[in-house]
Amino acid sequence: MKIRRMRLDDIDAVAALEERSFEQPWSREMFYRDFTGNSRSRFYVAELHGRIVGYLGVWVQEYDIHITTIAVEEDYRRQGIATRLIRRLIGDQAGDGKDVTLEVRVSNRSAQALYEKLDFEITGRRRDYYSNNQEDALVMTYSAHSLEDSNRGRTRGT
Ligand code: COA
């Protein structure tokens, strides 16, 4: 399996996977507009035998990198694919000094478990964030300092 930057011709597969994965999915049009018209957006895909089995979208903002969407095909979950996508993102922005942030439904325990395992912490709560059921969102943040600290630790250890 390889993790790579998304290309325009991946959008149909990504939008279809989004549709299968979320209650309020982004449409293909939204992916297209974000990919082609938003200079701050960046997408990664996980490709296995020529098939897209996961993806991650972010906005590179002034003070943080915000995860807009992430999903893995159901049959391929619990194999570390989302972990690899997020690690790739964090690795790519090493040195930029920006935190990584996201919102997650309070009911989405599996996604929260993923982020906790990757050292994200709960840093806020947005009331009634999701319009389909007025569910709250937890804001979770990966501190760029975690990376600096782990790099420092590594340097000291060598
Ligand atoms: N239950 C409990 N813990 C879970 C979990 C689940 N269903 N899924 C992931 N985790 C935790 C575990 O600690 C796991 O490590 P382990 O398998 O060694 O126990 C760790 O996260 C890493 O999981 P990983 O295999 O990298 O995640 P994944 O590739 O299965 O993808 C999601 C995780 C959340 C992206 C996937 O379940 C998904 O696409 N869900 C639907 C879309 C979604 O909710 N996206 C998040 C929006 S905020």
Key terms for this structure?
158 residues, alpha+beta, 5 helices, 35% helix, disordered C terminus, binds coenzyme A
Tell me roughly what share of residues is in helical segments.
25-40%
Span between N and C termini?
A: 31 Å
- Could you tell me the strand content as a percent range? 35-45%
Radius of gyration: 16 Å
Tally of DSSP β-strands: 7
Oligomer class: single chain
Residue windows where pLDDT falls under 50 for at least 5 positions: 153-158
Order of helices and strands: EHHEEEHEHEEH
Given helix and strand content, the structural type is alpha+beta
Small-molecule binders here are: coenzyme A
Overall shape: it is globular
Helix count from the secondary structure assignment: 5
Largest beta sheet: strand ordering: 1-2-3-4-5-7-6
Largest sheet: 7 strands, mixed
Overall mean pLDDT: 92
Give the SSE layout.
Blueprint: E1 2-5, H1 11-21, H2 28-37, E2 41-48, E3 51-60, E4 64-72, H3 81-92, E5 99-105, H4 109-117, E6 121-130, E7 135-142, H5 144-157
Parallel strand pairs: 4-5
Antiparallel strand pairs: 1-2, 2-3, 3-4, 5-7, 6-7
The structure holds coenzyme A.
Structure overview:
With 158 residues, the chain is an alpha+beta fold. It has five helices and seven strands, in the order E-H-H-E-E-E-H-E-H-E-E-H. It binds coenzyme A (COA). Residues 21, 70-72, 77-83, 104, 108, 110-111, 113-114, 117 line the site of coenzyme A.
